[in-house]
Amino acid sequence: MVEWTHLPGLSPYPETLAAMEARANAIAAGTADEAIWLLEHPPLYTAGTSARPEDLVEPDRFPVFDVGRGGQYTYHGPGQRIVYVMLDVKKRGGDVRCFVRKLENWVIAALAEFNVRGEIRPGRVGVWVERPDRPRNADGSVAEDKIAALGIKIRKWVSFHGISINVEPDLAHFGGIVPCGIRDHGVTSLVDLGLPVTMADLDAALMASFARVMEAPPACQSPDVAP
After folding, report:
1. For 9-20, what is the mean pLDDT?
2. Is-catalytic flag, 220?
3. Burial 48-57 (b: 16+ CB within 10 A, else e)
4. Which residues share a beta bridge with 186?
5. What 8-state DSSP symbol labels residue 32?
6. Of the residues 14, 20, 74, 143, which has the fewest C-beta atoms closer than 10 A?
7. φ and ψ of 140, to 5 deg
8. What are the residues whose beta carbons fall under 8 Å from the beta carbon of 91, sequence distance 6 or more?
9. pLDDT tens-digit series, residues 15-52
């Protein structure tokens, strides 16, 4: 049983983080069901365990929070769907890399509901979209933008933190950091791609595709093939 919860308004970061950790501990102890929280945060930056100080370009722009998840600097703010996943990883095969790949494939499956082809790139955690409408890169490859970021932590085989998917955030807010430490590619959103997708639309797509991707047998799918 996975309990889905929509948190209204803009959820304050420290309080939400504390509640998420408490829920993950309860799941590990067997006293609570697995949970997925869907929410938005006020504008802020988070620093994962691999964050580099030089990637915080404007340290005074928004509050900055050091967090225990993997990854580097990320932005959270209104118009971005945050998906906190408190799930039993051992029950889903006990392979952390496969679990992360499944989370990425889950996002890809949800984006496909809007005819957006999300893709995975080796060495770049998250979900990317090609931008043939933009000038090609210096090496001749098609320009790419990141549409979803992912960073999790696992304690006692229960995951927490999770995914951020850009629906209609202010993309200029990403300028205060080097998102995920990647300088050679940009950031986009569903609305930036010209799609009038609402937060409720995305939530419905995530809920519809969850069981098909996350509850499937543990074998990971190819990074180049959407589910």
Report:
1. 97
2. no
3. beebeeebbe
4. 145
5. S
6. 14
7. 90, -5
8. none
9. 999 999 999 999 999 999 999 999 999 999 999 888 88
Inter-helix orientation angle 96-112/199-214, to 10°: 130
Helix boundaries (H) for the chain: 13-29, 96-112, 199-214
Q: Please give the Cα distance from 197 to 50 (Å, whole number).
A: 32
Question: One-letter amino acid identity for 32?
Answer: A
Of the chain, the end-to-end C-alpha distance in Å amounts to: 23
Please say if the pLDDT value at position 72 is more than 60. Answer: yes
The pLDDT of residue 22: 98
User: Structure pTM?
Assistant: 0.91
On the CB side of 41, how many CA atoms lie within 13 Å of its CA?
Answer: 26
The catalytically annotated residue of 24, 180, 182, 206 is 180
At 121 the pLDDT is 87
Q: What is the mean pLDDT of residues 43-64?
A: 92
